[in-house]
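Task 17 of the worksheet. Students: predict the tertiary structure of the chain below and write it out as structure tokens. Keep your answer in the requested format; marks are given for formatting as well as content.
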Amino acid sequence: MGCDTFPPDVNGAANFASRLGAGLTERGHEVLVVAPAFSRKRGRFIEDHDGSRFAVERLFSLRWYPHDWLRFAMPWNSQANAARILDSFQPDVVHIQSHILVGRGLARQAVKRGIRVVATNHFMPENMIEHTLLPKFVRKTAIRMAWKDASKTFALCESVTTPTRKAAVFLESETELTDVHAISCGIDASLYSQNMDKPAENRIVFVGRVTGEKHIDVLLRAVATLDPSLDVKLDIVGGGDQLSALKQLAVSLGIRDRVDFTGYVSDQELRSILTRASLFAMPSIAELQSIATMEAMASGLPVVAADAMALPHLVHDGENGFLFTPGDASDLAEKLTRVLEMPWEQVLAFKKASLKLIVPHDIQRTLTTFESLYRGESVTDPATDVSLGETAP
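Model answer:
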């Protein structure tokens, strides 16, 4: 499995790769993840991830300083590293989680050796472009070039997947690909607990990278306009380069005493924060799926999310939450207020709807589908975008 980001990095792509590696190991497969080293220590190690132990080959890497944590493997060593690793491990299949550096080398060397290649796209140029040094007037051109470059690597793959049908359609529109599979990243919902009693206080929670593309400033501005009688508290869970700026924004908005910037937390702490919350908010406009939103739904939370990219696949407006106009703090505030002021019986209905809508995203279904792709079998994409009156097959 080739990754440009992997734990201890904290992001959706890294989390998915870790859970996939752990799940495949539990099913008896031998897994080797290839990823940049997170320190000067490099080589092949047996590591613990998501309750499983499997091999991870850590490549020499350097820090990309415009980003708060990103490290990258050397592009000029990509082919040589891939050749060495493939010849020593001799895999039956290569699954790349990124086309950029590690995946690029593995895909090309695997094809030379007649090894099946499967790719999953987690990439949105908008999520990375602000961490470059490119001036704004050339960014649109850079994004077009990025997708053209992605097409070259994905063209080598027997199967290409992405987490949702909308993300698949988007990927096909930006590249020359066809027949992109929509396969949910999946979660183990049994790990999350729900509080079906009315909470003692109104707590809104956001979970994710504290970076510009998440539009957390919109959430802060919305919370600042809420009726003071609601006495809302806001938990911002995660770390990132915008942490200091957002803390200062909270001060200027007069809500700093009501916002808890937790930074990075353990899985156990995250689940506790979700369980005690009243609702979950996701203002990001570039989510290919949003594992954080899925975790909130598994915790039985109503969700208020931007009506953008894949979020409408998870948030069914008026059923388990509401969608708001992206970037519109006033509309977000109105939707937050609707949830916080609705009768408890209706809140319970939203909570139960979240729990039902997350069922089709079971990670065991995801693992089974990828196993079929690894064997070169044709698959029917698991149905995840179902209505409350349906049961996913």
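Marker's comment: The mean pLDDT is 91. DSSP finds 14 helices and 15 strands in the chain.
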